[in-house]
Design a protein that fits this description.
The chain is mostly helical and 143 residues long. The protein is 73% helix and 0% strand. Helix 2 packs across helix 4 and helix 3 (68-90) packs across helix 4.
Length: 143
């Protein structure tokens, strides 16, 4: 494979084109901070759309998998995603509470699993064994 031409020279963009995305993001974040209820509803709607897409893809993918194990798990998860998205569609405020509680439960479960794993692997960590040693000082010869 040979390259016939040199790369195109870098063309600087206009300052306003570089500043525009930052200005838009600053305005959007100020709006979101000012009206947190509206920002919550918008984020719930985005999660709802993602859940609808995930449910449809799970159901479609269930019919393309080989074996009953993959088929059954996907055919059960697809309607669960769709039911979850219908709950978010019908009641966005309650859906935001459900999402918040679910995230909290996942974080607590993650904490507990990390604690269990840390006790299971207590003696295997190199950091625990080396932390009690004193640092040695190296003396350089005088010139």
């Amino acid at each position: 494979m040979t390259v016939t031409g040199a790369p195109a020279p870098w063309v600087p963009t206009a300052p306003w084109a570089r500043a525009l995305p930052g200005i838009v993001l600053i305005i959007a974040s100020a709006f979101a901070a000012g009206d947190s209820t509206f920002a919550t509803v918008i984020s719930v709607k985005q999660i709802e759309l993602a859940a609808i897409a995930a449910g449809v893809f799970q159901i479609a993918h269930a019919f393309r998998t080989k074996g009953w194990g993959g088929f059954l798990s996907r055919i059960v998860l697809g309607p669960l995603y769709l039911a979850f998205s219908l709950i978010l569609l019908a009641q966005p405020a309650r859906g935001a509470l459900i999402l918040t509680y679910f995230l909290g439960a996942v974080l607590f479960a993650s904490r507990d699993i990390r604690r269990l794993l840390s006790f299971a692997h207590w003696g295997q960590s190199c950091c625990l064994r080396g932390s009690r040693r004193r640092a040695r000082t190296v003396r350089l010869p005088r010139p």
